[in-house]
């Protein structure tokens, strides 16, 4: 080792100890954070809070970013709407009366975070290892969730961090929704948002302004029936909590040392899952939605099934025909071949490998079984479909849909069965030819399977590379 590199390492070590010794993760009532002064750093050094200017803007904001990531990645902004136009900003606690975090510019309050709870006189503002900025009683333990007087996780910006909740506190009515920045230079809320809609069978939606833009599909106990980016993978495990008190989506890191986030990207109108790569020193886009044309909300109309690989891309579900006769005009959706009878004589056709229809008009019961669910649906003339609520094990719970079924997409990853109401006559006429179709499909599949396996063996023998087998099935059998 030469003298230069020895000096360099010593310097780095010194710098490290300096940072370690002087970094603080919290301030009390008598302290403040000034623009250009100290920052808050979480105990594990992962997150940092301070003043910053986004993109080419000169405005000053208080934000939280990953300290360990060299590409400045701001995950939360306090004064999104009220930037400070000079460097006189100060963040501090005002503990006169009930404690409030205030941001001041020249004696004017620019931003404040009210506590909804009565606080004691001694409070601290602390940046936790999770990236959550919390205001809490000095005496309470740092990680007691309920003891926070205020927390930044309740007011998300464009980024969902691990452990953050996307959705509702049903007791207080607080909704936590993601909203994109207006532009890379302006963190104020853009028109691109994502949240959980309160309805019989709750779903996550993305909106562009007040218009629905993308739907993740109902939760089936394991995943959402139409979204790759909110799914389990080797990096994250997810959870959807739906009880009397709370309704939210959240995810956790399998390997706590990794960085993985969900971001609303205004530049591309995408919701992306990004994971930090140590090797490339960049954020990898693991997945994103919308992915394709079929992800556009309601693109095929009622009872239309959007199939990316088909032409036309909108097909009518079995038992339905195009409403409009115009060539390739599928915007009107589909209508029944045979009108419903609206009696106990109606039946159901089973569909699977679908992103289940929009559940805005729906009803659920967690303890009913599939047969009780069928009976419940038949009883109500506006019920058009039913399914299990939870597909784990042999499936349980009941979800039923009222009115026209929309925003359906072929999704070969979803094994959930959906039973769609049909008139008795539709079921009757289909029985004959259907059996033949099943036989033909099975035979074709078997032959294709043999060919593919043969091809695969040939390929691997000759070592020309791999092929990927895409499992793609559409199964529709009679349910009687
Ligand atoms: C900054 O904002 C303050 C308060 O809104 C205003 O009075 C002042 O003129 C602004 N200064 C500049 C340089 O824009
Ligand atoms: C602190 O709070 C008190 C009582 O709510 C208020 O009168 C005062 O103006 C506040 N001070 C600042 C600097 O916000
Ligand atoms: C602070 O505010 C006062 C009164 O509003 C104003 O006279 C003064 O110029 C401001 N100072 C700065 C540095 O903006
Ligand atoms: C926050 O404080 C402001 C000003 O003191 C008040 O008008 C507002 O109602 C408070 N909000 C909540 C949620 O307490
Ligand atoms: C959005 O995507 C663009 C292009 O990939 C990227 O440069 C930008 O950083 C992304 N924005 C966010 C907020 O992730
Ligand atoms: C309902 O079905 C029964 C038996 O198939 C038939 O007799 C009756 O006409 C049907 N009613 C309607 C309104 O379609
Ligand atoms: C759900 O179904 C069970 C079993 O049929 C029934 O006892 C219960 O009352 C239902 N709950 C609701 C809210 O309808
Ligand atoms: C059918 O369900 C709808 C929606 O929940 C409800 O408004 C209607 O009263 C029900 N009809 C019957 C006959 O139960």
TrEMBL record:
Organism of provenance: Acer yangbiense
Swiss-Prot/TrEMBL keywords: Disulfide bond, Glycoprotein, Membrane, Signal, Transmembrane, Transmembrane helix
PROSITE patterns in alphabetical order: BULB_LECTIN, PAN
Gene Ontology biological process terms from the UniProt entry: recognition of pollen
Keyword S-adenosyl-L-methionine tagged: no
Entry protein name: Bulb-type lectin domain-containing protein
Signal peptide range: 1-23
Coiled-coil regions listed: none
Biological role stated in the UniProt entry: Involved in sporophytic self-incompatibility system (the inability of flowering plants to achieve self-fertilization).
Spans through the membrane: 437-458
Keyword tRNA processing among record annotations: no
């Amino acid at each position: 080792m030469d003298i230069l590199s020895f000096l360099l390492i010593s310097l780095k070590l010194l710098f490290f100890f300096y940072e370690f010794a002087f970094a603080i993760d919290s301030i009390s009532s008598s302290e403040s954070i000034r623009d250009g002064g100290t920052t808050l750093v979480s105990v594990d050094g992962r997150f940092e809070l301070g003043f910053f200017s986004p993109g080419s803007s000169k405005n000053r904001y208080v934000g939280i970013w990953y300290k360990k990531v060299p590409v400045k990645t701001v995950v939360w902004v306090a004064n999104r709407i009220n930037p400070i136009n000079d460097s006189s900003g100060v963040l501090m606690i005002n503990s006169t009366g009930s404690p409030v975090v205030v941001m001041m510019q020249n004696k004017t309050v620019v931003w404040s975070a009210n506590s909804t709870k009565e606080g004691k006189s001694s409070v601290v503002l602390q940046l936790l290892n999770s990236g959550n900025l919390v205001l809490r009683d000095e005496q309470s333990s740092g990680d007691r969730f309920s003891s926070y007087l205020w927390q930044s996780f309740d007011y998300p910006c464009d980024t969902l961090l691990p452990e953050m909740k996307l959705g509702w506190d049903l007791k207080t009515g607080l909704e936590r929704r993601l909203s994109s920045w207006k532009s890379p230079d302006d963190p104020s809320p853009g028109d691109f948002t994502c949240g959980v809609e309160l309805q019989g069978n709750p779903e996550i939606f993305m909106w562009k302004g007040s218009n629905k833009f993308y739907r993740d599909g109902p939760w089936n106990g394991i995943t959402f029936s139409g979204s790759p980016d909110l799914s389990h993978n080797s990096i994250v495990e997810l959870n959807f909590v739906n009880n009397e008190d709370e309704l939210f989506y959240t995810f956790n890191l399998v390997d706590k040392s990794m960085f993985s986030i969900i971001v609303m990207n205004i530049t591309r109108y995408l919701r992306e899952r990004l994971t930090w790569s140590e090797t490339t020193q960049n954020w990898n886009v693991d997945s994103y939605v919308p992915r394709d044309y079929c992800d556009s909300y309601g693109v095929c109309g009622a009872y239309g099934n959007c199939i990316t690989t088909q032409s036309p891309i909108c097909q009518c579900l079995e038992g339905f025909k195009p409403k409009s006769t115009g060539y390739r005009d599928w915007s009107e959706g589909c209508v029944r071949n045979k009108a419903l009878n609206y009696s106990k004589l109606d039946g159901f056709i089973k569909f699977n490998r679908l992103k289940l229809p929009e559940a805005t008009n729906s009803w659920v019961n967690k303890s009913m079984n599939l047969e009780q669910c069928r009976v419940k649906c038949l009883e109500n003339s506006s019920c058009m479909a039913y399914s299990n609520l939870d597909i784990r094990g042999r499936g349980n719970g009941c979800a039923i849909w009222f009115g026209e079924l929309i925003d359906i997409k072929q999704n070969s990853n979803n094994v959930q069965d959906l039973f769609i109401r049909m008139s008795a006559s539709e079921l009757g006429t289909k029985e004959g030819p259907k059996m033949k179709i099943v036989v033909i499909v099975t035979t074709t599949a078997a032959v294709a399977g043999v060919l593919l396996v043969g091809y695969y063996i040939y390929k691997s023998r000759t070592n020309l590379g791999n092929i990927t087998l895409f499992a793609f099935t559409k199964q529709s059998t009679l349910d009687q």
